[in-house]
Amino acid sequence: MLAASTIPSIHYNTKLPYIHHLVLNTTSEPRTRKPAAAVSSFRYNYNNHHHGLFFFKPSTYAVGTVRARAGNGDGASDAIPQQSSSVDIKEISGSSSTFGDSYVALFVQMLGLDYDPLDREQAVEALWKYSLGGKKCIDYIMQFSGCINLTVNLLRSESSAACEAAAGLLRSISSINVYRDLVAECGAIEEITGLLTRPSLTSEVKEQSMCTLWNLSVDKKHRLKIANTDILPLLIKSLEDENMKVKEAAGGVLANLALSKSNHNILVEAGVIPKLAMLLKANVEGSKVIRKEARNALIELAKDDYYRILIIEEGLVPVPMVGADAYKSFRPELHSWPSLPDGTEIERTSQGPSKFGANELLLGLNVSDKNANIDEAKMNAMVGRSRQHFLVRIGAIESEDGRKPQSEFPIDRQLTLLPWIDGVARLVLILGLEDERAIARAAESIADISINEHMRMLFKEAGAIKYLVQLLDHSSDAVRLATTHALERLSVSRGVCQIMEAEGVVHPLVNTLKNLDISESLMEKTLDILGRILDPSKEMKSKFYDIPVNGSEKGLDAAESLDPSIELTGNVIEAAVSETTTSYGKVLDSVFIGRMIGIMKTSYPDLQRKAASILEFITIIDPSMDTIISADIESGLDAIFQQKALEDTDSDIEGRQPEKYALDIEEASLAISAGARLLTKLLDSKQFCQTINSTHFIKLLRKILKSNVPLHYKDWVAACLVKLSCLSGPDQDFENPINMEVTLYEAIPRLIEQIKSFSSEAREAAVIELNRIISEGVVDSTRAVASEGGIFPLVKLIEEGSNRAVEAGLAILYNLSMDSENHSAIIAAGAVPALRRIVLSQRPQWTRALRLLRNLPV
Predict the structure, then answer these.
(1) pTM to 2 decimal places
(2) Closest Cα partner for 229 from 274, 184, 261, 199?
(3) Are 140 and 149 in contact (CB under 8 A)?
(4) Spatial distance between the Cα atoms of 372 and 388, rounded to a whole number of angstroms
(5) Is 418 in a helix, a strand, or coil?
(6) Would you say 560 and 642 are in contact if contact means Cβ atoms under 8 Å apart?
(7) Tens of pLDDT along 739-770?
(8) Nearest alpha carbon to residue 672 among 694, 651, 655, 697
(9) How far apart are CA 734 and CA 309, in angstroms?
(10) Which of 192, 184, 304 is nearest to 249 (CA)?
């Protein structure tokens, strides 16, 4: 405690007579009456008195952000936490500082619980104002132990002024790195949480409290504690507060919390992404800080693939920052007639070009006119392109409010978030630059953003396909890989595939695959694109529909309205095949076919499937199949039909995860199905039938038919087996003829699955067909029905099915009942009560039901 003699003589304001009395009697007992305008009015004018101390009012206190690197930044290798702090405030120096320091001990003592609440309020206000003098003042306050504990205790006060001052003082102290842990250890986070949960708080209290959390959240160890409290919903709710300072503080805390990857799930589940995205898209005056913090938080969340999808769905796309130097190679077409971004030319309505380009300018200005006859997607593409071109021309493409972005990290690790229209246009613009690194980053971003049909069509309308196809011939491996990845993601859309084909994408993709030194990743993505374009089942059908029929054009829209089951014949097919053969005949040569067969010999089922599908397409455009047959296609088929996943023993399966094993079986089955389709198509060639080792392939396919390949993949295997058996002559294996195996392992399981369906027509057809098979006396047919679980759906069918279905079902169950091993299963399926109801109701099938009942041990 300070003695009266230690207080320097000063000039007191005549309005503060009580101050002198207060200081001289610090050793007396705590007073019981409330002081009148004591410390709260304590202000010394530094400008008028050389030894005075000027206390800044908090309302005039400039607030800013000071960057400070966190000690341990989990998941924040390219981001810097930010803290709320004061800026543009000069530290008190010289004799004025010494004078102010003399009163700190007094004010700290007045924070004690034994003082009057008003005294404590005035003391904390004075200390808060004193702390605004800078680090030196805060250091002096921290010399007195217990100061933080007493300040934290004041957060429980009923007075808004006391809570604001206490939170403000904690904010100042926590802005200093060495004191941040001490503030958290004294329970500031818990008390601020309790304070903010009060039903009614002033904006000033909210601002100071959240700014304290903003400072504390700079350290990783405090982020998880803040995120796991009840404060998170309050922070998200505060993003909609009317006070901009409160919004900024809440956004700053959330941005720092997002720096820790462990908090991402908590933040997303709390609903932070829609709120931040709304703030970032809203261009409200004075919202620069909150938009910056929202962007920082969303960029951190976008590092997770799933959360990036959620952000894109909210109307924002991640765009790489490539640096101003990269845009120097941009060359706008200043004097060309305007066209849509996708390359569509706009019809000229004037006879000649305008002397000063007025026609072109007016056309661009009136793109949003209702009479322009341009759909919304094309209009948005033009608007986005115009904005980005304008920003490049004025040198503000990667600046905000006219200033270049500041970052401690290299430009190739920086991202920003832009709305759909601007982001897509920016990425397409970067594709036209000369910087290889910028192009590769833009292409990768396009791949990441192409998550749905809407985004893929945005890139199509923006003209990205033309640039990407041209970049496939780029000299840089990184650019080619990124470009191929982008095209692979875009090619999921049928409309985009057609644009790619029109831009001539097949030729560079084929050349890429002919290169034996390409990486496995590039090979896989290239095969994906080619497989979608050269799809034997879909692409050819769309070509047929695009051909004029009877003088009328049937394009893509007409094709979608036609029945896809219609079989096209005659001149239409011949014209389509002729056109396709002319287009691809020279590209899909013997070298390429040999490369596809080489891929089929690899041990990767997914690559085998794609290669087999492309070769099937070639058999359609080249019915002679001479090139394929001469390229040793049998070796590739042999590799496809001997999948390692089907040869695993039980011990091999036990040591693997069930999900991984199921995925391996699925991929192997897809490859086998594609190989069986290709082999079935090749068997149409007499030349191939004369050279193929049919016995070998029959053996392989019969093994597959009996394996654990899913049933819906066995249809082509069964069809191929039947076709091979017809070519190879009489079956030498009399005990297990091929037709019988196809029936047991493909037909019967398929029919049972059909009986389980919800369609009454499908069930009736299936049970009638199954009854026919069993009635013909196929060996082991009843055993196959029982082993495939057919008894339960058959019993259910005789209760719900039509008369024809019930009659066929009763016949099958009667044949099954002839084997006593099936009795328990038939009874367990509930057949006895169902049969009794049929008999008692005298339905047309009651005699069959009675015969079945007599066979059962009931």
Answers:
(1) 0.73
(2) 184
(3) no
(4) 22
(5) strand
(6) no
(7) 787 888 888 888 888 888 888 888 889 888 88
(8) 697
(9) 59
(10) 192
